[in-house]
Specification:
Order of helices and strands: HHEEHHHHHHHH
Shape: elongated
Distance between the termini: 40 Å
Helix content: over 70%
Radius of gyration: 19 Å
Number of strands: 2
Number of domains: 1
Structural class: mainly alpha
């Protein structure tokens, strides 16, 4: 679940394209009996000149996610050893009632927070920017980091909203994600528009 949040901006890039088309007054859906198909237009981004940059930044997020996984596993092995827990009940008992379990919670949360801040900082507006304009990855990442530094409280609140929404979506047997993810993607596009100045026509 945390990994999806870290790479979410890349995963919903097609929905950013739908938001961009809607903003420009272009067609965004094909109506067929009983279903609305957004995907033909979501995949229009394959024609974007920024596609290599989008893929490169997506790879960076994937590397951050893998590093987070390795760090989390290393922390667990350091505290509990390489042997997996006997059962979920034993694991929860160890984590919630022992000093090393509390250390896992505190240190694991701190490490996860660092990776989450890193992923949010480099991606909060960079993917919409790459889709909207033909800029380099470094420019998009720098713009995103500057936006976070300029409004840290707002961006932290946005990160909490995203995390809470995804948790709700996962707890609703993943069905909630079908509603939460498009809303978050469209809201992220509007966040990008509020933060980054529109290009001249």
């Amino acid at each position: 679940m945390t990994g999806f949040a870290m790479v979410g901006s890349f995963a919903v890039i097609g929905l950013f394209e739908v938001s961009r088309r809607r903003e420009l007054g272009l067609e965004t859906s094909s109506f067929t009996p009983f279903i609305v198909l957004l995907w033909p237009y979501a995949f229009d981004l394959r024609h974007s000149p920024s596609l290599p940059s989008i893929l490169a930044l997506g790879l960076v997020l994937l590397v951050i996610f893998i590093c987070w996984q390795v760090s989390a596993e290393s922390l667990y092995v350091w505290l509990f050893g390489p042997t997996p827990p006997e059962s979920l009940r034993v694991f929860l008992s160890e984590v919630l009632t022992t000093p090393r379990g509390w250390a896992l919670i505190v240190l694991g949360s701190a490490i996860g927070f660092v990776f989450a801040v890193m992923a949010l900082s480099i991606s909060v507006v960079s993917f919409p920017l790459l889709l909207d304009r033909n800029v380099r990855v470094a420019v998009a990442v720098r713009t995103s980091v500057e936006a976070v530094l300029a409004s840290p409280v707002t961006m932290a609140l946005w990160g909490l909203i995203v995390a809470a929404s995804l948790v709700i979506g996962f707890f609703l047997l993943l069905v909630g994600l079908a509603f939460v993810v498009p809303i978050l993607a469209h809201a992220t596009w509007h966040l990008y528009r509020r933060v980054v100045e529109r290009p001249p026509p």
